[in-house]
Amino acid sequence: MRRWSGRWGPGEDTEGRSAWARGRVLAALAVLTAGLLAFHRAVPNSVGRLGSLLEAFLPWLGLVVVVLLGLALLRRSATALLALLLPVAAWTYHFGGLFLPGATTGAHDLVVVQHNVSDENADPAGTARALAGASPDLVALEELVPAALPVYEKTLAPDYPYHAVRGTVGLWSKHPLTEARLLDIKPRGITESWSRGLRAVVRAPRGEVAAYVAHLPSVRVGASGLASSWRDESAGLLGKAIAAEKRKPVILMGDLNGTVDDRGLDPLTSRMNVAERGFAFSFPAGFPMARIDQVMARSAAVAHIRTLPATGSDHLPVTARVRWHAARS
After folding, report:
1. Are 97 and 59 in contact (CB under 8 A)?
2. Nearest CA to 213 among 262, 264, 269, 166?
3. What's the pLDDT tens digit per position in 149-168?
4. Cross-strand partners of 169
5. Is the bond into 10 cis (omega within 30 degrees of 0)?
6. Taking CA atoms, which of 15, 18, 84, 112 is between 20 and 30 Å from 278?
7. Which residues, 6 or more positions from 287, have their beta carbon under 8 angstroms from its beta carbon?
8. How many of the other CB atoms lie within 10 Å of CB of 173?
C-alpha cells in the first residue's frame, strides 16, 4: 500500500490512486452484468435450470446496473463508469424498445384480455366486470373452478354472448366461436384430472382467427434451482399443436408460467410473435416482478401489452392489441 504523504494529487484518493486505477472490481462486475444480458443463453440449464432462472428475471439486471452506477460515482471511478456503458447498451438493446410508443390503432385490430382469475378469487363477479370494462374482443381466463364458473358466465354474457370452456380454461368472445375443443397439453407425470388447454375459431370481422387458451404447469424456485420440467414439457406439446394449426392468424393467450426470455418457452416463442411494446409485469399482483401472462400471435403482431388494475386474483390482468396485415401470410 502506498503511504499517504498528506497531499492528494489531482483525482487521487487517500491511497494515491487515480480515477482510472480505482473501481476495478466494479468494472469487472459491470462487464459480467453485460455478459449475462447479452449472452444469457450461454448460461447452462443442466444444473438447476439456472439459465431459465436468470431469464425469468432478466430485466431486473437493470437494477444491478443502477446500483453499480451509484457505487462508481461514490468511488469516483472512471474505469467503472466506462465499463458500465456495456451493460447499459446491452439492456437498452434488449428492453429499450418496449418503452417506445405503440403504433396508431388500426380499424381491424383485435383487443384481447388475458387473466388467471385464481381459484381462490372471492369476487368473481367484480373480476368479470373489471375485465369487461376494458372492452376487449376476447377474454381468456384460467383457474376457472366449478363454483365460480356460473358467475363468470352470467356476468360476461351481456357483452360476450359466445364462450367456450374446457376444464379450467375458458374463452369469451364478442364474435361467434366455432370448432371449440379440448387441447391436450398434459405432461406425462401428472396422473390426476388436468385440462388446461382450449382451441377455438373466432369469426372476427376481418376473418377467422384460431384462438388458443392455455395454462401451463407452475414452476418452483428452491435450493436446487428452478423446477420447470412439467412446464417445459407442456410448452412443447402446445408448440406442436400450434405448429400443426392450418388457420392463420393464430392468437395464444394464457398463463404460461414463464417470461418470453425464458428458454423453456422456446417451443412457443420460436413460432410466434411476442409483444413489441410494454413490460406488463403481471405476477405476483402485490408486487409484480415478471410477466408470465402472455399474448402471442402467428401471422400477426402483438402491437402493445399492458396490465389492468388488480382484481381478486394473485395475477394482474393483461390486455393486448393484436393486428395483422391486409395480405395474410
Report:
1. no
2. 166
3. 999 999 999 999 999 999 99
4. 142, 166
5. no
6. 84
7. none
8. 25
Q: What is the pLDDT of residue 329?
A: 40
Amino acid at 91: W
The answer to whether 65 and 33 have CB atoms below 8 angstroms apart is yes
As a whole number of angstroms, the distance between CA 64 and CA 87 comes to: 9
Phi/psi class of residue 154: alpha, beta or left (left: φ > 0; alpha: ψ in -120 to 50)?
A: alpha
Kindly report whether the peptide bond that precedes residue 249 is cis, defined as omega within 30 degrees of 0. Answer: yes
Is the CB of residue 290 less than 8 Å from the CB of residue 56? yes
What digits encode the pLDDT tens for the residues 134-153?
Answer: 999 999 999 999 999 999 99
Q: How do residues 228-248 score in pLDDT, each as one tens digit?
A: 999 999 999 999 999 999 999
| pLDDT of 328 higher than 50 | no
Exposed/middle/buried for residue 38 (C-beta within 10 Å: 0-12, 13-18, 19+): middle
Beta-bridge partners for 323: 301
Q: How far apart are CA 216 and CA 207, in angstroms?
A: 28
Name the helix (H) or strand (E) containing 152. Answer: helix 149-156
| 311 within 8 A of 103, measured Cβ to Cβ | no
Strands 110-116 and 138-142: parallel
pTM summary value: 0.89
